[in-house]
Amino acid sequence: MPQLESGNCEIREREAAVFPGILAESLTQSRSELVLYLSFILMGVCTTILGPILPELSSRWGLNDTHAGALFTAQFIGSSLGGLLAAIHPPRCAILGFVILVSGLLVLTVANPSIVTPLLFTYGLGVGLVLTGINLTMSNISGARRGQTLSWLNFCWSLGATICPVLAGVFIPRHRLGVFLSILSGWGALMALTFIRHRAAYSCRIAENAQETRPLTASIRFLILYFGSLLFLYVGVETALGGWLSTLATRLNRSASFGELAISMSSFFWLALLVGRGVFALALKWLRETYIQPLALACSIGSICTLVAVRSFTGVAIAASLAGLSLAPVFPLSLSFFLSHADRSKSSGIVFAICGLGGAVMPWMTGAVSTYRQSLELGLVVPLGGAILMLALSLYYLLLLRPRYPS
Predict the structure, then answer these.
(1) Is the pLDDT of residue 284 over 70?
(2) pTM
(3) What phi-psi label fits residue 343: left (phi over 0), alpha (psi between -120 and 50 degrees) or beta?
C-alpha cells in the first residue's frame, strides 16, 4: 500500500505540471476538506442520536433509567476503543468506521433488547473510528492551518448535534424511527464512498506535512493524565446533559401536542453550544483564553443547578440553553491547551480514548441515580458534580500547572 500511495502522489505531481498547478492543487484540497466537513455534520448526528431516540426505545422495550443509561456506556466504550485504533492509520480506519456505523444503523432498525447492548458497542466503535480518524486526518493535512480547520470541523459536529433532535422530533412521533435510521445509514454510505474517492489525496498530503513526533517524556505523560481527566469530565457532562434532556422534557408534559417539542428539547442545548463556540471564538480576540475557561465553567455550574431545580418546560429549555452556552468554549480551549504543550507527541489517540470514556460513565451514573431516587432531576446532580470538578481542575491549571509547563 505505501508503494501505491507513492505512485498516486507521483501521478498528482505530473498532473500539476500539465494543469495550472496552484489552482488545481487548491481545488483538490478544498474538495477533500469539504468531504471531511460534511462527514462531521453526519457524525454530530450519529454521536448524539441515542439521546433523542431514548424515550422511544425505553417505551418500546420497557427500560428503566439504569438500563437506558447503560446504552450510553456501551456506545462510548466502543467509541473509546475506536479512538485508540484510529491512530494506527486515520484514513483507512475512518473508512472502516463508516462501514461499521452504517451497518449498526441498519441493524438498529430491527433490534431488540437482547442484542442492543453489543450492537451499540459495535456502533460506538464505528463512531470512534470515524471521529478520531477524521480529526487526525484533518490535523495532519492542514499543516499550519490546523487550529482554524479543527475549529471549523468542531463547528460542523455541533451543527449535526443540533439538527439531530429536530430530525428525531419529526420522525419519531409519527412512528418512523426505522425510516430515520435508514436515511442516516444512506447518508453514511454516501460519505464513505466519497471519502474513499479522496483517500489518495489525504495520504499524499499527510506525507507532505509529516513532522517528527516527540517522545513521551514524564512531563507529557503528566499532561496526558491532567487533560485526559479534564476532557473525560467534559465529555461526560456534555453527553449526560444532551442525552437525558429529551427524556426529562417528555416526563414534564406527556400530552401529544408536546411530543415533537419534548423530543427536540436537547436541540436547545446543542444549538446554544453551537452559537457559543462561534461567540467565544470571536471573544478570544479581546479576552485571555486562560480566564475564559474557569469563568465559563462557573456559569455552567449555575445553569445545571437551575436545570435540577426547575419543573417547567420553559424553565428546562432556558436552563439547557444557558448550560450549552457556558460549556461551549471548554472543549476547544482544553484541546488547544493540550496541543500547545504536547503537540507532535504520540498521545492523541490516548487522550481521545480517555475523554470518550466520560461519555460511557456519566450518562449511566445519571440514569442509576435517577432510578434509585425516582427523579431524573436528581440524577442530573451527576453532571453537576462533573462541572464542579472541571472548575477545580481549570483553576489548578491557571494557578499552578501553566506556570510550571509553559507552552
Answers:
(1) no
(2) 0.79
(3) beta
